[in-house]
Fold Cytochrome P450-dit2.
Amino acid sequence: MALATSASTFSALYSIHPNFSVPSTFTSFLLLATFFFLCVTVYRVHFHPLAAIPGPWYAAVSDFWLTTHVARLQQCTTIQSLFEAYGPVVRIGPNKIAFCDVTSMRSVYCIHKFEKSTYYKSLLTNDNDHAMTTLPNAEHAARRKPYAPHYSQANLALFQSDIHDVTVKLTDILGRIAGKASVDCLDLFRHFSVDVLASTNFGSRPESLDLWAVNMPDYISIAVNDFPKRGVLRSAVPTWAWNLISRIPSSRWRQVCASDKIMAQFVSEKLYLMRAKMLAGKAIGDIDTEKMPLLQRLLQHRISSASDLMSDQNIVSEAMGHLVAGVDSSSTTISYFLWELSRRPDIVAKLQREMDDAMPDRRVIPDISVLSSLPYLNAFIKEGLRLYGAAPSLLERVVPQRTASPVSSVDGDFDLMGYALPPGTIVSTQAWSMHRSAEVFPSPETFLPERWLSADNSEAEEERLASMAQHMMPFGAGPRICGGQGLAQVVLKIVVATMVRNFDIKANPSETNERTMAIKDAFITLPAALECKLSFSSRPQ
Ligand code: HEM
């Protein structure tokens, strides 16, 4: 009876709407997909465990919105504007939270030591893990142990003369072209950083600076710079597609695709040479007292009390990881420091006064202990790292399972500023925002080294300086903090000291200006124009 009624209703409807027809499979699929999408949207925005956290509703629906900003190299500024609009904790994806709060920063990175997210896998070297890409804490600790002592202050002091040699060569090269043409500092300091890292890590340098000086391509500097682009692409496409696109017949394109292999070959050659020397008894030394390049340290490292050595594959990947992590980060940071100097004669005058006293012979670089005691130089470096540290982006971590290892477990849902976050939630903060907190750093966008100098010895002044220090994280925080921080700090001090002592630096506004130097971020920052052209003129003796 009911069936007959509905059938007659249907034919009645059909007779009223003669154009009505049964929906096609495609239309049904579309309707179903729309319905499904609506259900997911309503769930994610209103019923998801993270639904109470403020943020734009479209960010809660899908990662697509954030990805569009990542692709436009403006993630840092986008997240910063969300903090300004919604407060210090924001939902930036269906399963992603960003926060800007010093207590939460310490809790996530230093106290609970949450593990890294899979984002870092795009930085694998030679298709293999190294310290930066190793996610589990215990495995990471085993990776970090062999290399960490290399970057200690005491060990780096043994390499000071090598760093000085490279810096004096840099000064000579700049001296020869001073006053003649502008120089792309990004490129120049990439070559400089390759030479510095190669001296400390491999025991010999590829003379990248010399190649730069005669305008010859240096394949290793190019490969280091290409590597992150290759990594992002490689991790975005399946292997069969990668095999296809890496064969596109363009020599420059193939060079980008092969950057991983080029670096691996370079490091492997250094490794075999080092091993041959060691076998010949030439470079074997006491690990605690003798100067030994990173490669030798890794070759000698015993994984356990048994005699297991690190595999060649792991040594190569680790050493490559340090090139990738150290070269572009240093050259970008230095370029921004010099760009700031080119437009701030007031700062240059103070630095030059300090350096003229500390470095009477401009070709003799003072010991790092002397540089580290110079108040204005150190204030400049801190302020530079605050605004121009080259890795100010979100450092993603994952809220652990409740039963996770004691190193990073939390008892129930993790409480982040009053919000309960279930296991698996991706949480992160970014130095970009921590360093721009107006309460801690008044006039945060102003480059002001003086903010790091104590006005008096009062308790209030001590508290102000301590609060700024707590908010600083240019090298990250906790057990995953930058492994090469010690070397980066030494190099920054030596370069700034030497450059201001030897040169006056200018920018020609038609080639280098606020627009060309606008900061873009692809985890590591870079200027919008992908170059930083500055002119150097030698200072009178
Ligand atoms: C100014 C220059 C530099 C900046 C701003 C910088 C910044 C950073 C940051 C923020 C991290 C942490 C990433 C995270 O938590 O996800 C990191 C990690 C790392 N950096 Fe640097 N870095 C610099 C220079 C260097 C240099 C010169 C080296 C080595 C030669 C280096 C080697 C590493 C390594 C090995 C890691 C991974 C640490 C680990 O997980 O054990 N960095 N760096």
The chain is about 55% helix and 10% strand. The two ends are 108 Å apart (CA to CA). Residues 1-16, 404-408 have pLDDT under 50 and may be disordered. The domain at 125-394+429-538 is CATH 1.10.630.10 (Cytochrome p450).
